[in-house]
Design brief:
- The two termini are about 10 Å apart.
- The chain is of the alpha/beta class.
- The strands form two sheets. Strands 2-3-1-4-7 form a five-stranded parallel β-sheet, sandwiched between helices.
- It contains nine helices and seven strands.
- It has a single domain (about 1-115, about 175-215), classed as P-loop containing nucleotide triphosphate hydrolases (Rossmann fold).
């Protein structure tokens, strides 16, 4: 199954992708993770992306498309994939469509997770991450056992640079302007599956499972 998870920052795309990995036995491809790793490794693409990511702007298409193209060519994607964070604009969607068509593949579902803006801000400003092991926490929804300390490796938790309110609202604004047109693009192709993302992760997982099975 070839699946895209669509939604604004904080909608829960990453959370749902990880749940779907087990259910569908296909890999998650997160452009956010790919880009953050490239920034950490200080690759050429990572350095190009760093400034854009820190201000909440979209990373240039050629950088993202290049990374996705390389990732989809790997063996574990042969049975399908879950794209999380890509495409983010109609141009990227068209590039993805061409890429998949060139190898005789296509998308089956585009799940759009809908969440009100104030809820998105609340979710994102409360996120805490462990730079040592990558574990994620939230001050309200998934707090660590000891405040500010990672449960897994006891490292010090941090707030990512792009998780302050000003940057978050800018990211949401960019999404509304540049990414929401994807709904019309995929609706016209009969691929869009819109769901309410305001529930618990388990509730949203069940909704997604029902929607893609019916479609």
């Amino acid at each position: 199954m070839n699946l895209v998870l669509l939604g604004p920052p904080g909608a829960g795309k990453g959370t749902q992708a990880k749940r779907l990995i087990e259910k569908l036995a296909i890999p998650q491809i997160s452009t956010g993770d790919l880009l953050r790793q490239a920034v950490k490794d200080e690759t050429e693409l990572g350095l190009q992306a760093k400034v854009k990511m820190e201000t909440g702007e979209l990373v240039p298409d050629d950088v993202v498309i290049g990374m996705v193209t390389q990732r989809l060519a790997q063996d574990d994607c042969k049975a399908g994939f879950i794209l999380d964070g890509f495409p983010r604009a109609v141009g990227q969607a068209e590039a993805l469509e061409d890429l998949l068509a060139s190898v005789g593949r296509g998308l089956e579902h585009v799940v759009s997770i809908e969440v009100p803006e104030e809820e998105l801000v609340r979710r994102l400003t409360g996120r805490r991450s462990c730079p040592a092991c990558g574990a994620m926490f939230h001050v309200s929804f998934n707090p660590p056992k000891q405040s500010g300390i990672c449960d897994a490796c006891k490292g010090e938790l941090i707030t990512r640079a792009d998780d302050n309110e000003e940057t978050i609202r800018n990211r949401i604004s960019v999404f509304r302007q540049q990414t929401e047109p994807l709904k019309d693009f995929y609706q016209a192709k009969g691929l869009l599956r819109g769901i309410d993302g305001s529930g618990t992760p388990a509730e949203i997982e069940n909704i997604i499972a029902k929607v893609i099975s019916k479609a």
